[in-house]
Amino acid sequence: MGESKLGNGASSWILHMAFIILVSSMWGLLLKEWKGVSKKTFSTILLGIFVIILSVMIVGYGNSIE
Questions:
Q1: SS3 per-residue string spanning the chain
Q2: From the centroid of its chain, how far is CA 8?
């Protein structure tokens, strides 16, 4: 449903899935589901969130130059 509302083909699906992952990760952080994990694991989740945000910005930029 999200892809059909955005209407940009594959890039809208990518943005929709990235948003779902970001929201679920942020809920996990807010609800302290990651409490007690090693620093390496925690830094990996933060790096993953950063990579997703960066990829959303790249896809958004790519859509703007079409």
A1: CHHHHHCCCHHHHHHHHHHHHHHHHHHHHHCCCCCCCCHHHHHHHHHHHHHHHHHHHHHHHHHHCC
A2: 18
- CA–CA gap between residue 52 and residue 22 (Å, rounded): 8
pTM: 0.73
Backbone angles phi, psi at 29, to 5 degrees: -70, -45
Task: Output phi, psi for 43, to 5 deg.
Answer: -70, -30
Q: Which stretches of the chain drop beneath a pLDDT of 50?
A: none
Other residues' Cβ atoms within 10 Å of the Cβ of residue 15: 19
Residue whose C-alpha is closest to residue 59's, from 2, 18, 3, 1: 18
